[in-house]
Amino acid sequence: MTDPIADLLTRIRNAIMRGKTEVSVPVSNIKVDIVRVLKEIGLIKSFDIVDNNIIIVLKYTKGVNKISGIIRVSKPSLRVYSSYRRIPKVLNGLGYYIVSTPQGILSDREAIKNKLGGELICKVW
Q1: Which helix (H) or strand (E) holds 88?
Q2: pLDDT classification of 1: cutoffs 50, 70, 90
Q3: Residues 61 and 100 in one domain
Q4: Spatial separation of the C-alpha atoms in residues 78 and 92, rounded to whole Å
């Protein structure tokens, strides 16, 4: 697999389209950090690591998933970096960027609050 982050995002997107409540993803440190940020933001209900897999429980409100869209921004072939001052807003502040900073994987709001720039991994709304 050349891009494990894109695989994570695609599995989440596919589970949402099928109306699934859980999705299983092979474990890696960066995937755990991204899922942790999604949990902190409140877009997923919970996650657990079982037998080298991350079991992600998706969050639904009145039958509608909290995640409307999730897109990879920085790719292995084209990295996208931003200072904390230039992190763009997703849907005028309704969405989030997930940013890889020197202090770890953070949401855009946490990165701006801590004055940390970095690689824009994905955007989610």
Answers
A1: none
A2: confident
A3: no
A4: 25
Of 48, 65, 82, which closes a domain?
65
Strands 53-58 vs 81-82: parallel, antiparallel or unpaired: unpaired
Same domain, 49 and 76: no
Alpha helices in 19-88 (DSSP H): 29-41
pTM over 0.85: yes
- Per-residue pLDDT tens over the stretch 60-116: 999 899 999 999 999 999 999 999 999 999 999 999 999 999 999 999 999 999 999
Same domain, 47 and 100: no
Residue 108 burial class via C-beta count within 10 angstroms: exposed 0-12, middle 13-18, buried 19 and up: buried
3-state secondary structure of 64: strand
For tokens 């997107």, the residue is 13
**Domain match, 49 and 97 both:** no
Where do runs of H (alpha helix) occur along the chain?
4-18, 29-41, 108-113
Q: Write out the residue range of the structural domain in which residue 97 sits.
A: 70-124
Can you give the pLDDT at residue 2? 87
Whether residues 18 and 35 fall in one domain: yes
